[in-house]
């Protein structure tokens, strides 16, 4: 993990929709070293602003782009 620079999480909305796998997604995000960046991909994530706030509270991140598609 120390050498890993980036992690791509596709279908990130599954963290909200599937209680059985939520802990796996959360563990991945929590356990990444602070120096590892990640990209979360999802076309259907709900309550994007709240989700970004949650991510910022645990990862100290600055979102690059959130496209609401509205």
Top keywords for this entry?
70 residues; alpha+beta; two-stranded parallel sheet; 2 strands
- What characterizes the major β-sheet? 2 strands, parallel
What best-fitting shape do the alpha-carbon axes yield? globular
What is the count of helical runs? 3
- How many angstroms does the end-to-end distance come to? 37 Å
Strand content: 5-15%
Instruction: Please give the radius of gyration in angstroms.
Output: 12 Å
Instruction: Name the helicity range.
Output: 40-55%
Round the mean pLDDT to the nearest integer and report it. 80
Spell out the helices and strands N to C. Answer: EHHEH
Main sheet strand line-up: 1-2
Short structural summary:
With 70 residues, the protein is of the alpha+beta class. It has three helices and two strands; from the N terminus they run βααβα.
Describe it for me?
It is a single chain. With 70 residues, the protein is an alpha+beta fold. The protein contains 3 helices and 2 strands, in the order βααβα. Strands 1-2 form a two-stranded parallel sheet. The longest helix is centred in the middle third of the chain and has 13 residues, at 19-31. The model has no long low-confidence stretch (mean pLDDT 80).
Spell out the blueprint of helices and strands.
Elements: E1 6-9, H1 14-17, H2 19-31, E2 37-40, H3 48-59
């Amino acid at each position: 993990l120390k050498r890993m620079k980036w992690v791509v999480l596709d279908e990130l909305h599954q963290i909200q929709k599937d209680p059985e796998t939520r802990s796996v997604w959360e563990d991945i995000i929590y356990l990444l070293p602070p120096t590892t960046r990640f990209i979360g991909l999802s076309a259907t994530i709900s309550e994007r602003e709240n989700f970004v706030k949650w991510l910022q509270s645990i990862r100290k991140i600055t979102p690059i782009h959130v496209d609401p598609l509205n």
